[in-house]
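Aim 2, interim progress. The first record below pairs a target sequence with its structure tokens.
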Amino acid sequence: METFSTKIVNNIQEWRSRKLEKSAHFLLNIGISANVLTFFALLCGLLAVYFLFNNTFLFLLFALLHLLADAFDGVIARLTTTTSLGKFFDHILSDGLVTILPIIKMGFFLNDLYAYLAAGLDDRAVAEEAMRRDVVVRPLSPLYIDAAPCSGLDIGFTGFDHARMQLAAVRLGEALRQVAKAA
């Protein structure tokens, strides 16, 4: 039986394939394979991670190029014969690295802040304490519907210079430590 989230992902893939199919045929006709696009997506994803917290414009540019190349490589792969090496390269190497590396970089940027949430601190209490320090984060535990809630924070940022981001990270760290002391 197909789960609700799997059905949504499949519907999005079908919609994306319909919208990108003509452009994908063009790319195939000029000799660009799914593996070439996967490599390009990986390269753009790695560059996006490199520029994360350093250059917002270049981060966004390479992140968008990564997403676009990743979308096209899937469409082209479905139009052609896929190989097990191609699947590994796309799903494990490219997608896996580009998913985990930003988390690792955020961990270095925010120092020990993730350890507090992993230890099971109440994310709602952390969000309230962060708000007292003029840092807006969103607790994730209230968003769980069918599973046991896990502690986490939605940390969104844009348009701030590096110094303001560092100040926000310090303040968030203070909020996490305060909630940890009270727990």
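The second target in this work package is listed in the same format:
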Amino acid sequence: MVFNKKWFFLLLFVIIIGMGIFIINSGESFMKISNLERKYEISKNVSITIQKAIISDPLPDFITITLLNHSNIVYGYGLGFNIEKNKNGIWHILPCGIAVADIAFELFAYSSVEEKLDITRFHDELIPGHYRISMKVFEWNNNPERRNELILGEFIVESAFIRNAASNN
């Protein structure tokens, strides 16, 4: 049998391409996190809960959230937030079209605070589906290198028509 370089390199090329496709597909679960989750670490010390986790038509103007600090560290937060929609397992940030002046508030150690978030600018985007609010918090200290952490709270938007039809069956 004669060694043919051309066939050897062609076979090697096919194997390398096949391995590349396998590696890309095996990383699919990595792709299901949002860009915010890639940029910021999820907070282990602060959590967010949404008072009404299922909302329907007519959409409220505000969502009431509770921020809870589970640690002995004082955290800071602002009222700037994103709403993300889950589409086929991937979180996508909804466009809001405006800038929000972000004033910092303190979240004291082992405390909680309730806030109302104005969601009227998202009303056109909030169709039935699975959503979450994402906000940034940070350790309240004088360190200019402080890092932001991400807190996430999920909610569902359902149509009143769909909900009422389902309950009548």
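The domain at 33-168 is CATH 2.60.40.10 (Immunoglobulin-like). This observation will shape the mutagenesis plan for the next reporting period.
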